[in-house]
Design a protein that fits this description.
With 299 residues, this protein is α+β, with helices and mostly antiparallel strands. The protein has helices spanning 3-17, 23-38, 56-68, 72-80, 85-88, 96-104, 110-118, 126-138, 145-160, 169-172, 190-198, 232-240, 243-255, 278-284; strands at 143-144, 164-167, 177-178, 181-186, 203-209, 212-217, 220-227, 259-261, 264-267, 270-273. The radius of gyration is 21 Å and the shape is globular.
């Protein structure tokens, strides 16, 4: 399990536990997850506490997971709070507060929830019913490309009214099937993006903080990544993927003495690009531009 995933799960379990004593601990883990999503290179640092927002306790846990593959705090937390509750949390519009109530009433698995709904022990709101049906329909499956485009395009076009916007991930690479709908939005003002999405007529929920928002429409979650203007080209390259292509890009960059990540490109600590467009990186690396749908581990 990846370090970010462990910390993300800790954050979610703490939200479900809903203890006043967890207030500052929850804030620390939530902040760490946001920082690691924005800057994964933190995990390669000898001393992560050099980054504002990463404390000694979190840094020690990063080193612990690197060394052992496990986190003692996380393992102990799972003994108290059933990890199966995280699966229920995947249902759109059913949040930690509701799940805390499920837990206290003995509902700790999807199967428990199914039975409770069937016998009338649990009554879901209309939004929760929408999310529950979507979860049951899509569990373990991937959407066909045309289906994902149909769902994502109206939201993409709505965002384009105010921001530079594009799809990311397998949807942008036009794969036959798509697991997630990812949208990148170019803006230096996350609050403005949040406000604009809040007014979308077919939206049924919006959550998140800083640069990552989870937007819900028709029972489907769309992940919206807000990218500063001076990182747009680099972020679009990175979050289009796939992983093998990004690895090949970085290997080529290293040979040329260039550091490449989702925030930009550097030589000897000086930023040399990342704000313009995707093609800029290929020009810097002196290789032919690769269209998103043709990207793999070869460049």
């Amino acid at each position: 399990m990846k370090i970010i995933e462990i910390f993300n799960n800790i954050s979610k379990l703490l939200q479900i536990r809903k203890s006043a004593s967890d207030k500052f601990r929850l804030a620390a883990y939530s902040r760490t997850v946001a920082l690691l999503n924005e800057t994964p290179d933190i995990l390669d640092m000898d001393d992560p506490t050099e980054i504002r927002g990463i404390g000694k306790s979190i840094a020690e846990k990063i080193q612990e997971i690197k060394a052992t593959g496990k986190c003692e705090f996380y393992e102990n937390l799972k003994k108290e709070i059933p990890e199966s509750l995280l699966e229920i949390l995947k249902i759109n519009n059913i949040g930690p507060v509701t799940i805390n109530g499920f837990w206290k009433s003995g509902i700790v698995t999807i199967e428990d929830l199914d039975k409770a709904i069937e016998n009338g022990k649990v009554i879901l709101t209309s939004g929760q019913v929408e999310g529950y049906k979507a979860y049951k329909q899509n569990k373990g499956s991937r959407m066909l490309l045309n289906e994902a485009i149909k769902i994502g395009t109206p939201i993409l076009n709505y965002l384009k009214k105010k921001f530079k916007t594009d799809f990311g991930g397998s949807l942008r690479r036009k794969k036959e099937t798509v697991k997630d709908i990812d949208i990148l939005v170019c803006s230096n003002n996350p609050d403005e993006v949040f406000k604009h999405l809040s007014n979308y007529k077919d939206g049924s929920g919006l959550e998140g903080q800083k640069r990552m928002l989870h937007f819900f429409s028709n029972g489907i979650r769309i992940d919206v990544l807000i990218v500063p203007e001076d990182e747009w080209g680099a972020a679009l390259n990175h979050f289009t993927g796939p992983k093998d292509h990004n690895i090949a890009i970085r290997a080529r960059a290293i040979k040329l003495g260039i550091k490449v990540n989702e925030k930009g490109y550097w030589v000897d600590g000086k930023k040399i690009g990342g704000d313009k467009n995707e093609k800029e990186l290929y020009d810097i690396l002196k290789i032919k531009y690769v269209e998103p749908e043709n990207r793999d581990g070869v460049i």
